[in-house]
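Lab meeting notes turned into a lecture example. A postdoc, R.K., suggested we walk through two folding results consecutively so the class can see how the record format repeats. The first protein's sequence and structure tokens come next.
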Amino acid sequence: MTLQQLKYAIQIANCGSINIAAKNLFITQPSLSSAIRELEAELGITIFERTNRGVSVTASGSEFLGYARQIIEQTELLEKRYFDAKPSRQHFSVSTQHYAFAVNAFVDLIKIYGVDEYDFNLRETRTFEIIDDVKNLRSEIGILYINAFNAKVLKKLFKENNLKFEELFTALPHVFISSKNPLSSKKKIALQDLDPYPYLSFEQGEYNSFYFSEEILSTYSHKKSIKVSDRATLFNLLIGVNGYTISTGIISADLNGENIIAIPLDVDDTITVGWISHKSITLSQLAMHYIDALKRIVCSL
């Protein structure tokens, strides 16, 4: 087993594809596949399962990659300390539901810890894909919410995929609307108040289960409904068509301007936002710094 093989395995896990990893490593795909097969044979485990959609990390592979990342990180620290070697490019990836505070924290991370070379990845994506990214180590951290409705299903998925959920904060549901919406003067909004307005939600692709919805009350019927795939489009529609969505109430004027406001929704429910990580993996220093940034941002907002 060599450090090079460890770096190869980590790169494949990050990319989710042997072909893409080979291109990033500037070696041929057969050479990379051969190196991984030799490593698996030496260890007596299967690190990656090959599928038509790429590769996924096995349970044994997740444990191995946790150790491998620590070894590479420590090796780089040794090189920097004793050989004054230039540290390799820093890598960090997070997958998240569409939360502005997750972007704010990412910006803070780059401002404080982004050195001359880094390769950071922020994926605002679907709920199932967040879980899959963290399971297969494409992201160290996944940010999503649970509540009374989806908790049983999501916690079962966390357990099956060897993931743990850590609470960041619990919030009361709020309605996000334009500051010019006729409801903007209300202190609290009832569900029936929203009936005339288009309901905006994030589409979840092939895993379009109520339990994977990014918005609470996903089973509630709406006269007008629009699904979108990105946060900028949703916020434009909040203004353009007087639409609304339901979220935590935490909103960033820096990213979203002053045109969007949050008003409490009159329902008996709560939203617990947190992060998931792999139980077999010790989080990197960058991941820990990102979590600290998340906590600071949430407190400030």
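The second example is placed directly after the first for contrast:
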Amino acid sequence: MIVHDFSNENSVLNQFISELRDVEIQKDAMRFRKNIERVGEILSYELSKVLTYTNKVVQTPFGSKAIQNLSDEMVLCSVLRAGLPLHTGLLNYFDAAENAFISAYRYHEGDSDDFQVIVKYLAAPSIQDKTLVLTDPMLATGKTLENVFMALKEHGQPKQIHIVSVIGSRQGVDYVKAIFPRDTHLWIATIDDELTSRGYIIPGLGDAGDLSFGVKL
């Protein structure tokens, strides 16, 4: 896997990550969602640099100009519900992409630390020979992305896979490296070193779904 970790680069991306982590700023759910969306936009721009382009002649009021246009057929797939703001950020840039959504959640039997990821809903177009972009804001253990990847296999074989995340754990990144094809790209704003026994990133930012949309029952 090719990992693109932007945490050590000086850019406004780090400002947005700082605000996402801040417990006071997190109280503003609209701002939290917007910052996730902004991170998605920045990572989309970086991702766009490795995609495929063809020249297209564009007619202007005063002449014509050959300009490179994106030629990849793309499918953006996000994990509900936490992935929605990140998905919006990507869709702002890849507006011609097809879209897929999957419901995946952790189930801790008997409130134990161990858990399994349950997939209950999937709506997706064919991904055969397309560029698949999987979005999940928190790459904690990597098991959610593994289950999403397995669920999508019945929809075809993509020509290229990209993963877009906001914050990951070192353990989660290593896990998906072992699961996904070697030429998969991971685009991630920052990686934290610790993971709790229940699979939560430390220091992380908390539950991205709850912070975006309210506490679930």
